[in-house]
Amino acid sequence: MEDKVVRFSVSLPESLLKKLDEKTLDKGYTSRSELIRDFIRELIIEEKWEKDEEVVGVLVMIYDHHRRGLSEKMLEVQHSRVHNILCTTHVHLDHDSCLETIVIKGKPDLIEEMVTKIAGLKGVKFAKLVKTALV
Amino acid sequence: MEDKVVRFSVSLPESLLKKLDEKTLDKGYTSRSELIRDFIRELIIEEKWEKDEEVVGVLVMIYDHHRRGLSEKMLEVQHSRVHNILCTTHVHLDHDSCLETIVIKGKPDLIEEMVTKIAGLKGVKFAKLVKTALV
Amino acid sequence: MEDKVVRFSVSLPESLLKKLDEKTLDKGYTSRSELIRDFIRELIIEEKWEKDEEVVGVLVMIYDHHRRGLSEKMLEVQHSRVHNILCTTHVHLDHDSCLETIVIKGKPDLIEEMVTKIAGLKGVKFAKLVKTALV
Amino acid sequence: MEDKVVRFSVSLPESLLKKLDEKTLDKGYTSRSELIRDFIRELIIEEKWEKDEEVVGVLVMIYDHHRRGLSEKMLEVQHSRVHNILCTTHVHLDHDSCLETIVIKGKPDLIEEMVTKIAGLKGVKFAKLVKTALV
Questions:
Q1: Residues of D in contact with C12 (CB under 8 A)
Q2: CATH code for the structural domain at B55-132
Q3: How do residues A38-64 score in pLDDT, each as one tens digit?
Q4: pTM of the shown model
Q5: Which residues have a Cβ under 8 Å from the Cβ of B120 and sit 6 or more positions away?
């Protein structure tokens, strides 16, 4: 799909434009357009999650790897949805705790159901889902 | 202060522009510019709260008005900062519960300190601060 | 409805209990129980909004009162749902800007629809909804 | 460090306890204590980020890998802080877009500075930071 670049213009009070330029710099953007584009992308991602379209979620969690049976249960949940899991990464934070990120692709309901199942497991000490999508 | 209206232009992929127009309609905005302006205002408000400028906070809370001494304690906290409180509104939700909104103007630290003091009072069942500012 | 006070016990690592006590103090709570109760109430409010039960919303907004026709349009939206609006408060922030809080009771969808209608009006510069409920 | 398990008791209205048990089930927790423990951990993580203690951040981002020079710039930012980066994971989402997670350990300011630098790069279409910590 070709997606040609177009332009549109925004009218606004001069004071707002000045602030926009400050924020563009502060946030490390190379141009106002880049900042506006990212804002639009966020709106689109939000909508995809609401309207039940295909999205991508990244579950970040920390768990106690000494907890007996936890790894097995986590793998079990993941294997029930093996086609939705794109990738898993594991980091040893200290002697007891591991951090894991799981990248999941699919419908919002399915992703949230998996996250609930994993987050509630005994030994999981932190779990947060980042909601994103192809935009 | 006169704040004349200016224009700037944004370049972006056509697909993003299409989505922006959809969101403008969905959110009930009359134009793209209006949506973009509100987005910039949110960035400014965020910055004012971070940079310790003068801001406005609205504390929304629900409390049990039967709790002995609660009203007195709430008034006490408010009177210690009487110049910062612009307005208080009180609604009877049911036989036991009242909802109150308190509009506070001042530095972020001062507002957050007041909110902590009030939110922790025995009998306060819900407290949330809306962070806004003159923009 | 009588709602008698009961007790339950929580088991946790000693380090977590120590931190809980620190946070109880920091946040101005008079007891651990009070902090835990507020946490449970937040879960309940979240659930009521998800499950389409009767809830309470507080819309906080800032608008330019010079904008011709804005007040009329805002009143129009409100009058279409007059039984749901418990109270409106108005504060003059400066020569141009007003802050208004609108307390709305009803089903989540109805509240969100009203908020979208008002937030999108030309001249409304900030709008945020606080989601709460009787708990 | 031994961290022995202790108990404390919470008093609350019976209706709140009933709701807590419902939420414990809904969220897939095996016990009330587990839910309360996770809530306390969240408070601790929040505090560590505020008080400038050592924390862990996970940056999730999506970018266009065709953008010339982007990978080099991203690597450059990362190499300037090589001791803080625990792990990076890369997933190909489609022909154009990659998702990357970067696990960063260090002081909050350092992590947020890196995130700002990377998020602003031309070609980065989404960036969100998950704030966590060893708890």
A1: 5-8, 33, 36-37, 40
A2: 3.30.70.1150
A3: 999 999 999 999 999 999 999 999 999
A4: 0.90
A5: C27, C28, C29, C30, C34
